[in-house]
Request: fold
Amino acid sequence: MTDQIRRQLPIVGVAKVSHGRDRMTCLYRCGNACDHAVPNGSDNQYFGDLVKNEVTRRGVLRTGAVGAVALGLGSAGVLSATPAFAATEPAPALPLVEEFGTAEAATTVLTFKAVAPNRVDALVVPNGYDHSVVIRWGDPVVPGAPKFDVRNQSLAAQLKQFGYNNDFVAVLPLDKKGNRALLVCNHEYTNEDLMFPNFVSQDALTVEQVKIAMAAHGMSVVEIERVGKTGQYTLVTSGARPYNRRLTTLQTHFRLTGPAAGSALLKTAADPTGTDVIGTMNNCAGGVTPWGTILSGEENFNQYFVGAETSTGDAKTRFSRYGIDTVNRYPSGSRKWERADERFDLTKNPNEANRFGWVVEFDPFTPGSTPRKHTAMGRFKHEGANIIKSRDAKAVAYMGDDERFDYLYKFVSDKKVDGRNTPEARKHNLTVLESGTLYVAKLGYTSATEIDGSGKLPTDGAFNGTGAWIPLVKGGRSMVDGMTVDEVLVFTRLAGDKVGATKMDRPEDVEPNPVNRKIYAALTNNTNRGVGTNPAADEANPRTNNKHGHILEITEDNDDHTGTTFTWRVPIVCGDPTDPATYFMGYDKTKVSPISCPDNVAFDGAGNLWISTDGNALGSNDGLFATAVEGSERGHLKQFLTVPYGAETCGPWISDDNKSVFVAVQHPGEIAGASVANPASNWPDGDFAKPGIAVTWSVWNKNIGA
Ligand code: FEO
Ligand code: CA
Ligand code: CA
Reply:
């Protein structure tokens, strides 16, 4: 291996929770979501009701078959009533590349030798590959950013430096060969105990430190350049760098668009227009539109708000359904942002939480452009959003709501995407996600008995699940009894409950495969499945106490992504392949890598499925995996790389030319008791842990995975 494994870490004593994740991760990233009751108060029908007993493995086998307008705010952000973006919106720039978001067609056969499971504190890549760090926490983003000094941090510095806990990554070429490109990423959350050398507790943070943490959330854009003719990229650190930018929770204005923009549900005292939100937060996964903008999912926004325990009636129901603490369960566990900005105190600003939980669209090619939050795409814990163009050129976005027993969604634009590379087309395309039909998924199946009267289960492939996309808002009208359009879009989870959507095992990244045009959803895990009074296993979520997760494959009927019916199957049931409850498209399991907790998916130009993991419940480091989904090698899943100790693998992003894969190493060394002085990981620089983005390439200039 070309990677230098620096040291084998002792296994640090870790306070484990039921699903194996470190408690620190749970507190900081999702507000201990697994310790809460499932925030799904509905008893809507789910197809599990049709299955009296846990679905067996046999059943599974058969199914399977710049400057944004940056205002210097005081201790509490104060908005003017006039949206700050109105007078300063620049005209959209025209990118040089015409179609984004998918790698060039390729014939890559995945011949790499799998990386073995390990617990080493290094990024480990296969023989014949190399890697380097492109950017890490504290590196300069905005020209003039001060040099990072962990012992001398400031808000002013963090606002210009790379943020913390990078998650989604996209690389958008600035020229036809991709020799220069924009790297865009999300900064999902912060670990203050791993950021500040003098950390004692969240309560003991200074207001300046709280603001530094707020500024370390958001997004970054940096210019990168290719090294020679290889797949390696490096950060551009000199010159004008006009695209380089930080989007933060503190300063960046976002404009709400679509049917619910301006709704009373979105108005606050500081923003009586209901259209002008300061900040984005807990941005998890995302996608790239065909016209070269970024989609970013606002996920676990609930944990940043306090004060809901005083709410009553509908307000309490709504807060509770979104996982906002209504019983003051974790008074010491909140992020304490209300100490720096009273927007996060719901007793003072009860609608502020409604202004988060959206899909953000951001144009990185237009410096100073105002990012937008699209209400037409619904509000929930958005993992991300990925678009495929329908045969009639509509933009169809697939989306997951990452919560146990929550739902899969899709959005179909009213407008068509204009495929021309002209200023007029770009201006039009920037409006495409502002109106459309929002659907939620209901998954069913035809029982074996119905297919085969003999009672024998049919052969692999003969048994497909069936499904329907249930409209929630269509033609500007609510399709949900008793809910207005605004209510459906702002409280989309409650709308899904009402129409009987199928309760899934934490839908994370949901992405169309541009080659076979099928949709792949990562269902991370659900240790509550079938436990107590919780919903039982069903065909689409086939295991009780689902520790390791699975992949769902959706095929739209007649290849019509605007349609309302589909079929589905479960091609991969994750875990240790020696576990009989796992399944890998029928492939010889002795040749398959163990995999646990799939989170993000991506596709190379050959349509191979790449999966990154978060929270490996098998005890080894998280990693990146790849498998073919068609042909004789389908199901031959292999581990391509592993990330350092305590980290999660995010991204991944495969370059347009298939020569590079970028991964975001999120929360390295996130182990209870670790600190700057006593780190559990010293990746990437040998001192203390810093989240960062790495690129991996073939030393023989082969396609990634070949
Ligand atoms: Fe932020 Fe669902 O992972
Ligand atoms: Ca994720
Ligand atoms: Ca993805």
